[in-house]
Write a structure and sequence with these properties.
Blueprint: H1 5-23, E1 31-39, E2 42-50, H2 58-78
Antiparallel strand pairs: 1-2
Length: 79
């Protein structure tokens, strides 16, 4: 059975948020916003992270989080 649009969005959002919080200290993250849409089979994930005190490349972490979200959705459809 194919996942619902809601399941796809939840899976992507949880994966992206989980990745960001695994890469950056929660105390360094001032703001984290994950926006996910899934319409007509097209997944769009936008990740915004404001973590000025983080040692990591925050922009790269945000980009990678979007990729992780896409992979999580691919895995969901493969189940």
């Amino acid at each position: 059975m194919e996942p619902t649009d809601e399941e796809v969005v939840e899976t992507a959002a949880e994966a992206a948020e989980g990745y960001v919080l695994s890469e950056l200290a929660t105390s360094d993250v001032d703001d984290l916003d994950v926006t996910v849409t899934f319409e007509d089979g097209v997944l769009d994930v936008e990740v915004y992270v404001n973590a000025p005190d983080a040692d990591a490349d925050v922009e790269q972490v945000a980009d990678d989080a979007a990729l992780v979200a896409g992979q999580a959705v691919d895995d969901l459809f493969a189940e």
